[in-house]
Structure formats: C-alpha cells, structure tokens
Specification:
The protein is built from 9 helices and 4 strands; from the N terminus they run E-H-E-H-E-E-H-H-H-H-H-H-H. With about 250 residues, the protein is an alpha+beta fold. InterPro entries: Glutathione-S-Trfase_C_sf.
Amino acid sequence: MSNPSSLGKVTYRGVNYKYTSWGFRGWACLKMAGIQFDDKILLEETPNFKEKAAGLSPTLLFPVLCIDSPKLGKILLVHDSLSIAEFSAEYASNSNSNVKLWPEFWADRAIARSAVAEMHSGFQNIRNAYSCNFITKFEFKPSVFDSKIKQEINRLFELWKSCRNQFEETRNSSELGPHVQNVEDSGYLFGEFGIVDAFFVPMASRLVQYSIPINNEFASNYISLLLNSPLFKEFYEIAKEENSYFEPYEFH
C-alpha cells in the first residue's frame, strides 16, 4: 500500500449499527486510520434481507469494506472486521501519520494481537446469551447468568489486566521503556486507544446494557473508559439516530 491516498471510493457495508458488534470494530478501525468512507447500511428488519445481503457480501456476513480502486481497475472486497482492522493498520502505517493502531513495541503488539484473536473467536457463551444492543437497557436476569458466563467474564477481566500489565512492564523497563516513550498513556490497554480496545468495546457495552454486576475495580474503570471514548460516543449517536427495530435483539 505504497500510496494510500489513491484508494479510490471506499464504502463500508454493514447492518444495523444499533446491533452490530463487529460493525463497530471495523468502523472504529477505519476511523482511527483516517480512511474516508461512505457507509451502506442494510437493516436486518428489511424484507428479503438475505437476498439483498447476497448482493453486498460474499459470505452474507458483515461488515464488508468495498474499495473501488482506479489503480487496480477493479472493486476489492475486504470482509470480516479482523481483516478490516489489519487493512486499516497497514493504511495508517503507510500514510505518513503518527497514528499507530497496534502497540509500538513488538512484545506488546504480539500480546495485543493474541487478545484480539481471542475476542474474535471466543467468549461464545456471553455472546450467545447477550445479543449486541448498544441502545436498549435490560434488567439483570440471574437465571441467564450461569457458571459458563461467569467463567468467561472472569477470563475477560483477566485478559484485560494481562494486556495492561504487559504495557506497564514495557513502559517501566529501563531497557524497553524508550520503545514506548512517545506513547501517550490514556489508560487504555496499551496506552492509547487502538485495535485491541476497539475489539473490546462491544463486550464492555454488553456488560453494561444487560446490567451485569461488575465486582472488579480495574474492569469497571476500563469499561467506563471504553464507553466514554470519543469514537464510541460518535458511534453511539449514529446508532441512536438510526431508528431501527429488529425484534430478536430487543428482548432478553
């Protein structure tokens, strides 16, 4: 990606922002990288949704990044939020900006990627029990909060803390500290808001929207930090104004 300014027309294809955890992740990465894009949102309550989705996504899953590139002479489809995240990180690193979507130091970067991969493929019990809904607030239901969900929440908090510990070890090391001396520590897992934080925002939102009790000070503070981040606030306002309603995600 030697000349990122020549991407061409970029369109972000997704479903209801109100309900899309993966949609937020890809959207946030594009925003962090400074990639200009239009969005094309297909509401899940739309009649004949699957037929219309087939025309937008090769997998019927979203998000999909559509790049109409004059340089390539074709339309490039980048699907899955993890691929979009990596595309965004590469774009940022080649755009002559100081924006870094992954941590600066290689060991921090490796741990951040591991955490993102675990989020991408794991925590299935939480995700199945608590559908993503960024707007609607639900009462806590003890009957849903079983031992498997508790185990996953404990693992989630452990993962967050281990990431933060890794960053602090690097930052406080006399030998390694210079590698991150230019990183502003805003309290996120690796100092500044990055891909790893974007991937955990929807999980933080789930815990709050479903009124899950949080008995962990570090996790509680991190959740508050994520949900008050400028990117999430911007996304939340878009989702709130979307005026969509898909019944399966509105009941718990």
